[in-house]
Structure formats: structure tokens, C-alpha cells
Design brief:
By secondary structure, this protein is of the alpha/beta class. It has a single domain, classed as Alpha-Beta Barrel (TIM Barrel). About 45% of the residues lie in helices and about 15% in strands. The chain has an eight-stranded parallel β-barrel with strand order 1-2-3-4-5-6-7-8, surrounded by six helices. Helix 8 links the parallel strand 6 and strand 7. Helix 4 runs parallel beside helix 5. The longest helix is centred in the middle third of the chain and has 14 residues. The chain is globular and about 45 Å long. The structure holds the ligand O=c1ccn([C@@H]2O[C@H](COP(=O)(O)O)[C@@H](O)[C@H]2O)c(=O)[nH]1. The ligand O=c1ccn([C@@H]2O[C@H](COP(=O)(O)O)[C@@H](O)[C@H]2O)c(=O)[nH]1 binds next to strand 8 and helix 10. Homodimer.
Length: about 240
Amino acid sequence: MNTKPIIALDFPGEKEVMGFLGQFEEKLFVKIGMELYMQEGPTIVRKVKEQGHDIFLDLKLHDIPNTVKSAMKGLAGLGVDLVNVHAAGGRMMMEGALEGLEAGTPAGAKRAALIAVTQLTSTTEQRMHDEQKVALSLKESVLHYAQLTKQAGLHGVVCSVHEAQAIREACGDDFLRVTPGIRMLGGEAHDQQRIATPDGAKKDGSSLIVVGRAITGAVNPVKAYQEVCNLWEAN
Ligand SMILES: O=c1ccn([C@@H]2O[C@H](COP(=O)(O)O)[C@@H](O)[C@H]2O)c(=O)[nH]1
């Protein structure tokens, strides 16, 4: 898998996305999430793919197993590289997602890697206790979801950098640890709670980093991306 930093294309529509991508000369690894997909649908995925960029389709599916299986079967035809579900949907749901992905991938095409979200990087241990009524520590909860995800046969998880090393030790190096919540040193955290720098992420066991506002909100996004790459690749 491409290990370039994944840029979160959290934009309201195609015009903004194409304006952003047009500033770059190289092929990127980008993330299309809910904000963009809800506006532009599969068309934007195909258009970004046509430009030669790798794509993480971050729709975080979470529903009954049959619904997720059918939805994933439809998404499989888009030719993306990475897709996801919520681990909280359970083992049967994740197995259904994998079956749907396998069934929907056209013959001869490469199947996307499937990962599951553990605890969102905007969550704190206190909020998890108060709002989800989970009695475990946050790290234990993330590890539990990672192990459940592995048992379901998926390829890895979305977690924060803070849990990446423990997941690597428990689930193996091949099991992907995809980590959002990446900020440059001293950068604004916004709504993120479990954050780390790109070099910290590499040192602490991330397989892939997801970076949104630190790049998309920069005065010079190409320069900001290069700085993220330099830190990520330095270690
Ligand atoms: O736990 C999660 C899962 C997904 N995300 C997504 O990653 C990006 C992060 O954007 P920033 O601007 O760098 O904060 C965003 O698209 C989220 O939907 C996450 O942050 N945490």
C-alpha cells in the first residue's frame, strides 16, 4: 500500500476539491469522507481516481450486517484503495462488509483494504465513560475493537497514534494502524483530542497518517504537505 500521508479532502464540493488538487504536481493519497460524498456522491470518487490519486473512502459504515454488506458491494465497484466501517457495528457486520467487498470487486481488479474505526480521535476517556458507558480504559477499548476487527478478517483499524504501538504488538505489523488527529507542533487541535505530530506518529507505530486541516487550511497547502511528508519520512 502507498504510505504517503493521506490528505483529507474535507471540502463542500467538486469545485473546491479540483481547485485544491490542481495546486499539486504529484499523485497523492487522498481521503474522501462524508462531507464531500454526501454532496457529490460516487461521481467525485471517479473523477479523483481518473486523475491518478489513491483514495481512502471514509464513510464509516455502521448498520445491520445485511445492509452494510450490500452497501459495501456497491462501493467495491468504485475502485478505491481503502474503505472503512465502524468496529462498534460488531463482528458479524464487519464480516458482512468483507463479503460485500469481495462480491462487488470486479474480476481481475484489486480489492480495497477494509479497516474499522475503533474510538474516534475526537473522543476522550472521560467522554467514552460518560457517554458510551464503557468501563474500560480508552486504550483497552481501542485494543478490544482492534482484536475484534482482526478476528473478523479485516486489514486494520483507524485509531489514534496513542494506541498504535499497542495494536502493533497485539495484532502484528501487517495489521494497519491508520491514524488521523495529526497536527504540526503547536498547531490548533480543533475538535481532535488524541493528537500527534507526523514524526511522532511514525515513531509510535502508525502505518498511515491522515492529515486534513493542517494542510487544507494552510496558506500554502503544497508547502504544508511537503513539511508533513518530510517529518513522516524522516524517521
Ligand atoms: O477517528 C477518526 C476517524 C476519522 N477522522 C477523519 O480524519 C480527518 C481528520 O481531519 P483533520 O482536519 O486533520 O482533523 C477528518 O476527515 C475526519 O473525519 C478523524 O479525524 N478521526
